[in-house]
Design brief:
The chain is built from 2 helices and no strands. It has 79 residues and is an all-alpha fold.
Length: 79
């Protein structure tokens, strides 16, 4: 099988895994205990859950889009 006909290279897969790890990190930052019917937990409105985690997820999704669109430069000029 000719490697030039593959859609993704090894670098694309590495970038995809890194982007996916960033998204998972963002979702982990969003997680935590919530409020119940009997007790109110003000931590559900913390800056980590409301501001930081969505931005981390957005960065992860954008990096995954970049990983799909990334095309490495060929060292050999095609004839």
């Amino acid at each position: 099988m000719d490697k030039r006909n593959l859609a993704f290279t090894r670098i694309n897969y590495i970038l995809l895994v890194v982007g996916m790890a960033i998204v998972v990190l963002g979702f982990l930052l969003m997680s935590g205990s919530g409020s119940t019917d009997t007790a109110y937990n003000p931590d559900i409105f913390s800056a980590r859950r409301i501001k930081v985690a969505p931005v981390v997820c957005l960065i992860g999704f954008v990096s995954m889009i970049f990983a799909v669109m990334y095309k490495p430069k060929d060292k050999e000029v095609e004839k």
